[in-house]
Amino acid sequence: MNQVATLIEALPYIQRYKGKTFVVKLGGELVERADALASIAADVTLLDHVGVHIVVVHGGGPQADKLSTQLGLEPVHIEGRRITDDAALEVTKMVFAGKINLEVVSAMRARGLRVVGLSGVAGDIIRATRRPPRSMTDPATGAVREVDFGHVGDVRSVDTSLLRLLAANGYVPVVACLAGDGEGHVLNINADTVAAAIAVDLQAEKLMLLSNVPGLLRDPKDPGSLIRTLASDDARQMLAAGTVGGGMGPKLTAVLGAIDGGVPRAHLLDGVAPNSLLLEVFSKQGTGTMVAKADEVAHYRRLIGEPDGAVS
After folding, report:
1. DSSP codes, 115-139
2. How far apart are CA 242 and CA 255, in angstroms?
3. Over the stretch 260-304, which tens digit does the pLDDT of each residue have?
4. Which residues contact residue 80 at a Cβ distance below 8 angstroms, ignoring those fewer than 6 apart?
5. Helix or strand or coil: residue 224?
6. Helix residue ranges per DSSP H, the chain
7. What ranges do the domains of the chain cover?
8. Quick one: what percent of the chain has pLDDT higher than 70?
9. Hey, what CATH class is 17-304 in?
10. pTM, to two decimals
11. Which of 28, 134, 150, 131 is nearest to 88 (CA)?
């Protein structure tokens, strides 16, 4: 009977999201785990079979760091973003567009999906400009220094016509977070940023960022401090106050870009937890952290019987 109740609960969501587009971003740490990748592939397959159009975007940071170390190169990160010099760019091209992309495609193909592996360079999906040096403040010391990110790009334009063509013909695109500058140069872009830009251009219903943490935590050391719902204005205040650190900062920045660009809801989900995508999409309570505009958050809180407030 519980299984029947679950199906009945899922039915209105199946009806609501049929024909809609979700952009799902996988962190490289999830691809390293065969169990997590298999579970995500199963979730994506079910969503595809009930008529949801899925575009997958992936990173590959841990694998790039590992290969860099094996090659005698020291990976450098500042505020969750990779410094990409000439040697690091060669590593990211090999890992992101090669090893990781192939592994994600293979896992989803094993579930019977028709999958196409791409990077943001293909079809001019993401065109970028090389990021100029920036003044960065060390959060530990307060010292300010000029940082050259190397071959790191900022999104200049997005063209998802190739992704739309693939989706219309029953394919699931899997996009690596590399871009071109239109002059033959490849640039490394944060995968969360790429996913958000694609979600906006596709007018996606949801942006879902999967990593190995439960979502946005009040205390990064306490998994029980999960923030379940967050209005976009409150998220902006948290970023401005410097209370969001590490790799979660770029994620929340990307989420805000998607919300500002018209994506109704964005989600920070635990990709290690089994079936986290399905629980988010097909259950009233959902999972992880949902970020949306204030009226959307208030509506959701009323739906699940939570008191309204700044952060819950």
Report:
1. EEEEETTGGGSEEEEEPPPEEEE-T
2. 16
3. 999 999 999 999 999 999 999 998 888 999 999 999 898 888 877
4. 190, 246, 247, 248, 249, 250
5. helix
6. 2-17, 28-31, 34-49, 61-70, 86-94, 101-109, 161-168, 191-201, 232-241, 248-260, 276-282, 294-304
7. 17-304
8. 95
9. alpha beta
10. 0.92
11. 150
